[in-house]
Specification:
alpha/beta, 16 helices, homodimer, globular, ADH_Fe_C (chains A, B), Dehydroquinate synthase-like, alpha domain, Rossmann fold, 402 residues, ADH_Fe_CS (chains A, B), methylglyoxal reductase (NADPH) (acetol producing) activity (chains A, B), two-stranded antiparallel sheet
Chain lengths: 402, 402
């Protein structure tokens, strides 16, 4: 960290830490749904996805808990991966028509993300897409609770959500402290049935959330860097175990708790944490509807190669030495190159994800448009290194081949 | 962690995570006092220690903030290190007589700990020592806020407090979710004036809090073990820097934030975390009024030596390899011995603390009584390894010489 007597402004931001989400974690987590939910409302909207929760008993358990607490339950099912603004509109309609006071989202990041927009939309007198298009604040919002069924996005403990508008081919994020879940119920056993592919994609997503904060020139704090490395080690150890042995509680529990802490704001408190890989990926899934974590896995090592320079090499050295146990007595640039190879090996061998865009049916035809969109109206995506559309396009191109 | 398909009960407890303390961290932290305090009460009791805050401007700043928000301020000063139940009684009297709605504690762990007992005492119709002697629950309690001036006990973000009764020579702890501070204001600059000795003792205290949870046979969670190691590395790096260079913001900030996370319940969530070194130390400071962190530093390596066995060696290996960078290819027992030497070097050389009890004027005359008291009425202190009075006495004896 260099010389002593550095003053605050040089490396560490002031911050407010305020993560109020209560978590019930473990095999008995869902037993608390009734008593927690009734603190917030007598009528609750239950949101979920494709109905798998009806097959594995989660739906029955949730209904039993809510009704047992004397809560009137309304439902909105069919929320899709890369959730769409239409689902949000439908949810808002049900909430408003019935005077519903809270939402219980049961699912992965897609269901919880969409529910955040519904929670704010219920308090708004405008179309919820304006949270994105006009950057209207997502506040106030009715209380949101969540039952997590997949470890990936961290939506169960963070403020933000991502929503897709198929008409405009936009996939964008927003969020507010008011949309952070009040209570989340995390039973790792519920993720036993998550497929090998979704487990791999989820692990890639968690790791990417940590990378987005870790790869930061300004605002680093030693303690938080080391904690990020602890979280990375957790994902790198347990992602492959969960794929091979889906009912390994230890692996599922570690992945689930790591998913929450990778993005709940704790690790990013002292930094700017301007994300770059996620916005680049969002264009991939907005244009092609590919799985978010898969897109991140393909993009990340290329983004790393593109960012690597004398100025940034120290972060790659930290990652390689502290997480991948590389020999620290090598040249920094050599360590950095080995680090990126380790990242590739993790994504494409240990997790078994597809290693380039052609393998998932994507070619260069939309790269120009996607690159521009990824950089937004400002024309530049600020972050670990600032990226302009021509930079983003080069990164996409690097993803075409191994 | 051994074989896959372990079930929950074998190694990881279900838990509820619920840490609602809001933290304003950084050079501007105290600017938020007024707006936060007025959310809780119109009359506030300001508690503090020996008046150093009047010399360094903190007192004036706090008063300006509170009065600027239209809050009526009452005061209780003179709260001592190893705070006594008498201060609590006095605080409760002031709170009750004036119908005061909240407390702002300004100081280190002693002031904040004593204020927790006052916060609960204000809602009780019995003498506050009964929170200890009769284990009466410290709930309900009026809201507590804190301004931290020393990084050590973590009281700014946890539920518990320690209180001393000079009449009975007892120093004991209690706590409740209701006594966890609602808001804490952490400006690392306020710790610039903490003496070298107190900085060393505070660093030892933080490290001991982590050890108490880390050295655990049951209930470990890989992710949390790695996070504990991240926190330990932080203390080991920055304790000595803060001693040499008291106005090093980076060092003070890392120590301060680590102090909160060492004990706010996050790292102990999955485990039983039965503490043993702290109760053994509490007898030292109850009988001799020595500085808590100094007592912990002297006791810890002896306790480690006493606990080391084939059954426990793996934790020492983890600590040595992951924190002290020891060569992992050695025999486990050899790594463990080197680990304990590293711990001694840290406490007694890097932090410069006295290395045995004789150096601080303590001999064996009270060891029998202290050993019995440390084990409580049950006659055994359960923890990493269970300790009976004869075990505790041996540990005290090991502390007499280097």
């Amino acid at each position: 960290m260099g010389k002593n007597n550095k003053k605050r402004g040089d490396f560490m931001n002031n911050f407010t830490y305020d993560i109020g989400t209560k978590i019930h974690f473990g095999t008995d987590a869902l037993d608390y749904i009734g008593e927690e939910a009734k603190k917030y409302a007598d009528k609750i909207l239950l949101t979920y996805g494709g109905g798998s929760i009806k097959k594995n008993g989660v739906y029955d358990k949730v209904i039993k808990e809510l009704e047992g607490a004397g809560i009137e339950v309304f439902e909105l099912s069919g929320i899709q991966p890369n959730p769409r603004i239409d689902s949000v509109r439908e949810g808002v309609r049900i909430l408003k028509e019935n005077g519903i006071g809270a939402i219980l989202a049961v699912g992965g990041g897609s269901t919880i993300d969409a529910s955040k927009f519904m929670a704010a939309g219920a308090c708004a007198d405008f179309d919820p897409w304006k949270f994105i298009s006009e950057k209207r604040p997502m506040s106030p919002a009715i209380p949101l609770l969540s039952v997590l069924t997949m470890a990936a996005t961290g939506s169960e403990m963070d403020c933000g959500g991502v929503i897709t508008n198929p008409e405009t081919k936009e996939k964008l994020s927003s969020g507010h402290a008011d949309t952070r879940p009040k209570v989340s119920f995390l039973n790792p056993e519920l993720t036993y049935t998550v497929s090998k592919f979704q487990t791999a994609a989820g692990s890639a997503d968690i790791l990417s959330h940590i990378f987005e904060t870790y790869f930061n020139i300004d605002g680093t704090m030693f303690m938080l860097d080391r904690i990020m490395e602890a979280l990375m080690k957790t994902v790198i150890k347990y992602g492959p175990i969960a794929i091979k042995d889906p009912e390994n509680y230890e692996a599922r529990a570690n992945l689930m708790w790591a998913s929450s802490w990778a993005i709940n704001d704790f690790i990013s408190d002292s930094s700017q944490a301007a994300w770059t890989v996620h916005p680049i990926e969002h264009e991939l899934s907005a244009f092609y509807d590919i799985t978010h974590g898969l897109g991140l896995a393909i993009l990340t090592p290329r983004w790393m190669e593109y960012c690597l320079s004398e100025k940034t090499v120290h972060k790659f050295v930290d990652l390689g030495v502290n997480v991948f146990d590389l020999d620290k007595d090598q040249e920094p640039m050599e360590i950095a190159r080995q680090t990126i190879e380790k990242v590739k090996k993790f994504f494409f061998e240990d997790l078994g994800l597809d290693s380039n865009l052609r393998k998932v049916g994507i070619d260069e035809r939309h790269f120009d448009e996607m690159s521009k969109k990824a950089c937004g109206k400002a024309g530049v995506k600020k972050g670990f290194i600032d990226l302009r559309p021509e930079d983003v396009k080069k990164i996409y191109e690097m993803c075409l081949e191994d």
